[in-house]
Amino acid sequence: MTLRVMSRDVRPSMALSGSSYRLVMDASPAANDVEVARDVNASSGDQPSISLRGLTKYYGRDRGVEDLTFEVMPGEVFGFLGPNGAGKTTALRMLVGLLGITRGSATILGTDVATAPASLRHRIGYLPGALALYGNLTGAEYLRFLARMRGRRMDRRIAELSERLNLDLTRHIHDLSKGNQQKIGVVQAFMHSPEILILDEPTAGLDPIVQREFEALIDEARQQGAAILLSSHVLSEVDHLAGRVAIVDGGHLVVVEDIATLKRRALRTIDLDFAQPVDAEPFTRLPGVTDVRSRGCQVTCTVTGAETDLFRHAAGLGVLSVRTHEPSLDQVFFALVRGGDRHADRPADEIVA
Amino acid sequence: MLTALLTKSWRDHWRGLASWAGGLIAIAAIQLWVYPSIRQSSEGISQMIEGYPEVFKEMFRMTDYTSGPGFLNVELFSFMVPLILIAVGVSWGAAATADEEHRGTADILLALPVSRFSIIVTKMIATALVLLGLCLALTITLIIGTRLVDIDVAAANLFAASFSCALLGMLYASLGFLFGALVGRPGIAMGAGIALGLAAFVFYSLAPLVDTFDAITPVNPFQWALGNDPLVNGLALSNIGWLAGTSAVVLAASVVAFNRRDIST
């Protein structure tokens, strides 16, 4: 295992940020180099569409974000992850000009958002996290109003998007379910075919079928060269959409990383069922295996990296079934943010290793 | 100015507007309707008013209650009309940006490619036109009504009195805009605006009786609007200037405050 301060593709300025996180990375440096090389190739010659440099916002007591630095390239879907209250919404609202910037800067399409003219937002689609629409209007009236405010008619595009999302535009918004209101939010973000999409928890309330259509919309926008910044508190949501993710916690950037690398590095929880109780102790000595717990005929542990040794050992003991849990965002955190303080608040008797 | 936003503001509030306009017209019509009987028994009423406590007479400036303009001043312009127009103005001003923010609709509105300046100025124009519309509705009602019941007041003076009250409403609307832009909470902005309006009203009404209140009368917006008795004397340019100028300063401060505001979630 190697201990490093920051992931490799984070700008040097991040490493000097006020963040107190220490990150444990267990991927081999060689593998990481390959990832970095690919990112650089993908972006060579392109200006980043969205660029945050030490972006900081203080407000209220203990709220806000500090020293966020990352870039989103044209044609990239970038996941912005973190638990609720981590500061994702604050950062996104700074990008669209709803909040002032305390320190640092952010540029969109090369223009500093702090001084950008309002016209820059012609090129931005924004879906707020706490979506609030004008309930007294119908969906059609609302979208037409927004189109007029954007200075052009978008009737055909609105009709097309509504049909794809199975959205009834004739009903008053206050009569629509949360999910249907969210669809209107999605339509208004996409209807002017923006080069920048800033989407705060976009799939909240959408049913799986609509979610798939939404993913298709994201994919089309990406193929047309849009830069898409997508926040979520659920890793699985951005899992198959995003190439890279930034993870924030407590207002600080924890890591900016390729999602595949991140998952490889993540701890996975594995349940092993045996015919009779087995001695859990030898499991703790297997490489990459931690948090071994046994209860009755079941052994539960977490694994990073390859699972080969674990399965070999379990097979020798006559394992009946194996269940692997997809890494949750929490577990990704545990993999990344293991400064020691994270484990301290877990009951000691749960941890055998 | 953003036409879509302008028409939307009116459309959203047409019911409220219609009832305010209807109320104003009804109040004016009822007062005009009862005026002939007041005039008929003017002697008796004059005696009755003579018997009122001095305090009461001075508060409501009832010196010539039975004359047409005197009656309209007491019944409409000393109390009802200014307070109604202040209420309308404050509620429009206080809601303009703060209601969008409080409901969360500001997030999409302000992420549109239009400046905050255009948005708040459009809403100011919408508010000013609403007050002007109410002023015209009242003026027309009064012109027709005074002709019907034979009150001798020039149409220009009826407009002068209504317009002074509308300007007073606009001044308090501008305070609504300012508080709304500063705190982002429509309830607080509205409460503060109404409280200031009522305070000025009380100070103005009691000014003849309380020396300390009288001392501030020159800077009391009610004095600017009504002190010159526009129903009798028409519009006084200096008073209009004070009302409009103060409104303009407060509106400009609201624009600055709104431009700097962090929109809350």
Give structural notes.
The complex is a heterodimer of chains A (353) and B (265). Chain A is α/β, with parallel strands linked by helices and 353 residues long. Chain A has 2 domains: 2-263, Rossmann fold (3-Layer(aba) Sandwich), CATH 3.40.50; 265-350, 2-Layer Sandwich (Alpha-Beta Plaits). Helices cover 32% and strands 27% of the residues of chain A. Chain A has a 6-stranded mixed beta sheet with strand order 8-9-10-5-11-12, with helices on both faces. Chain A has a 4-stranded antiparallel beta sheet with strand order 4-3-6-7, covered by helices on one side. In chain A, strands 14-15-13-16 form a 4-stranded antiparallel beta sheet. Residues 1-44 and 338-353 of chain A have low confidence and may be disordered. Chain B is mostly helical. Chain B has one domain. Chain B has 14 helices and no strands. Chain B has helices spanning 3-12, 14-40, 42-51, 54-59, 68-77, 80-103, 106-109, 116-148, 155-183, 186-206, 211-216, 221-227, 230-233, 237-260. The model of chain B has no long low-confidence stretch (mean pLDDT 92). The chains are: A alpha/beta (353), B mainly alpha (265). Chain B: One of its GO terms (cellular component) is plasma membrane.
CATH architecture of the largest domain in chain A: 3-Layer(aba) Sandwich
Helix proportion of residues of chain B, in percent? over 70%
Anisotropy-based shape of chain B: elongated
The biggest chain-chain interface is:
A-B, 32 and 24 residues
Mean pLDDT of chain B: 92
Uncertain spans of chain A: 1-44, 338-353
> Secondary-structure element order of chain B, as H and E?
HHHHHHHHHHHHHH
Q: What's the total count of β strands of chain A?
A: 16
Q: In order across it, which strands form the biggest sheet of chain A? A: 8-9-10-5-11-12
